From TrEMBL:
The keyword Electron transport does not apply. Transmembrane segments: none annotated. Keywords: Signal. It holds the Pfam family DUF1318. This is DUF1318 domain-containing protein. It comes from Roseospirillum parvum. The keyword Secreted does not apply.
Amino acid sequence: MPSRRLSRRRLPLLAGAALAALLLASDPAFAVGLDQARAQGMVCEGRDGLIHKAAGGPGVDGLIADVNAKRMATYRDIAAKDNVPLAQVQAFYGQTLQGKHGGCR
């Protein structure tokens, strides 16, 4: 359920800003690695806004830990600024990322 403070009008703006922050904050090597890992079916986007191991492979655990740590920091900042539960922020971005990249099966 959306919070009154996290209006439908603000959600797309926050989504764009958070995704931009995630991309800018990511190490370029990991950004390429994430795209490759997605393309190879090694990782998938979860409903919780985090990436999860799908098939695995060498080095994917470090990538998952790095990307998820950065995402959680961003999600915590958004939750604190908008005074909404962290789980609500994660669910919103999980849905957004699954819509863009596909989700875990």
